[in-house]
């Protein structure tokens, strides 16, 4: 049986939460890390930072569709997890740069493989979705 992230988190909470036994804390930490890097914006940000330091406004322009607020929150969370470093320069106006850490560099190779996989299978996925949607519509279940 597949357990989604919510099912696992509910099980962790029932077992005593993050302050519970060590295996529960470890599972929670792993899930949090996976959820963080698999979020809607994190991969795009990390890929942009893999080429060197980037300023906030450059990131804002290079990650399509992200709001300033969401970029700020995602950057803070990635910094908290040790994946990026934030440097503030004492200039007027203040200059802020973000760069990936050694841990992010290690993750980059996996992300590169994941994005290559997505590129290779993009057309097949699109065809599969179209086929599925047509079958669902033909069965009259399109309103589910």
List keywords for this structure.
three-stranded antiparallel sheet; 144 residues; 63% helix; mainly alpha; disordered N terminus; 6 helices; single chain
Q: What is the topology, as strand order, of the major beta sheet? A: 1-3-2
DSSP strand (E) fraction?
5-15%
- Give the C-alpha Rg: 20 Å
Provide a count of the helices.
6
What general outline do the C-alpha atoms trace?
extended
Q: Give the overall pLDDT as a whole number.
A: 82
Number of strand elements: 3
Kindly name the structural category: mainly alpha
Distance between the termini: 23 Å
Plain-language structure description:
With 144 residues, the protein is mainly alpha-helical. The chain has helices spanning 5-14, 22-37, 42-49, 56-62, 68-80, 102-138; strands at 54-55, 84-89, 95-100. The protein is built from six helices and three strands. The chain has a three-stranded antiparallel β-sheet. The model is unreliable at 1-18 (pLDDT under 50).
């Amino acid at each position: 049986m597949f357990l989604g992230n919510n099912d696992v988190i509910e099980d962790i909470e029932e077992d005593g939460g993050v302050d519970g036994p060590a295996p529960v804390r470890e599972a929670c930490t792993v899930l949090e890390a996976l959820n963080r890097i698999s979020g809607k914006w994190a991969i795009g940000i990390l890929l942009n930072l893999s080429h060197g330091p980037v300023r906030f406004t450059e990131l804002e322009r290079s990650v399509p569709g992200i709001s300033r607020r969401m970029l700020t929150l995602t950057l803070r969370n990635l910094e908290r997890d040790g994946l990026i470093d934030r440097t503030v320069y004492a200039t007027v106006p203040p200059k802020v740069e973000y760069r990936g850490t050694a841990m992010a560099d290690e993750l980059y190779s996996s992300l590169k493989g994941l994005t290559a996989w997505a590129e290779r299978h993009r057309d097949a996925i699109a065809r599969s979705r179209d086929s599925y949607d047509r079958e669902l519509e033909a069965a009259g279940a399109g309103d589910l």
